[in-house]
Amino acid sequence: MTTESSPVLITRAAMADLPTKFGHFQIIVYLDAEQKEQIALTCGDLNGSEPVLTRLHSECLTGDVFGSHRCDCGEQLAAALNAIQQAGRGVLLYLRQEGRGIGLVNKIRAYALQQQGLDTIDANRALGLPIDTRDYGVAAAILRDLGVHTVRLLTNNPAKITGLEECGITVSERVPLQIPANVYNALYLLAKQLRMGHLLDSRMLL
Ligand SMILES: Nc1nc2c(ncn2[C@@H]2O[C@H](COP(=O)(O)OP(=O)(O)OP(=O)(O)O)[C@@H](O)[C@H]2O)c(=O)[nH]1
Ligand SMILES: [Zn+2]
């Protein structure tokens, strides 16, 4: 099925049940216009007018797969899947936006610069790259395909809220998703709070 309710085209390519350590989900794999695989994990009945607990998770191979302590992504992913299961209804979109959109090679180059003392923003700048290239058109198209128009968004990032709303999805509430800092990611989280406007509680930053 192809969705054309927005300028962004997505194709629903495959779906199946997915039992996980967090609980049961349905996995739906979409192909976007660039033939990138975009993933939705859904739980419960998403129809109806009640806002749907939703997480837009930007791919982070190092954090999500390898358990990197450089960021909070892996723990946020687990916390979001747990929260959706506890609510009994929700959706997690796993968006192929590695490194805030710059890709894995560039993210690891940026990490190497962060090892030398640059923060996450200045490292991207030193590489001549944008700070954040993500847009949420694909996410909005997938949500519409799932029948989701109003969400309670699990995020600390105000740009994600405005980005999704600009693509026609209503965010009725922000649900914080903050993980306590560790010694490796404390400066990264502080930079996100001070320089990128992330809504982080200072008591959870070291
Ligand atoms: N370029 C770059 N990308 C990073 C870095 N650390 C994590 N990322 C990527 O940033 C993305 C996660 O974005 P964050 O800004 O941490 O969080 P967010 O998803 O925007 O906001 P939340 O919804 O609050 O989690 C993932 O794609 C990661 O791969 C870094 O130091 N440099
Ligand atoms: Zn990460």
Structure description:
The chain has 206 residues and is α/β, with parallel strands linked by helices. The chain starts with a strand and ends in an 11-residue tail after the last helix. It has helices at residues 61-64, 73-87, 104-115, 120-126, 137-145, 158-166, 186-195; strands at residues 2-3, 10-20, 23-32, 37-43, 52-58, 90-95, 150-154, 170-175. Helix 3 packs across helix 4. It has seven helices and eight strands, in the order βββββααβαααβαβα. An eight-stranded mixed β-sheet has the order 1-2-3-4-6-5-7-8, sandwiched between helices. The chain is globular. Mean pLDDT is 95; it is low at 1-6. The chain has a single domain (2-97, 134-204), classed as Rossmann fold. The longest helix has 15 residues, at 73-87.
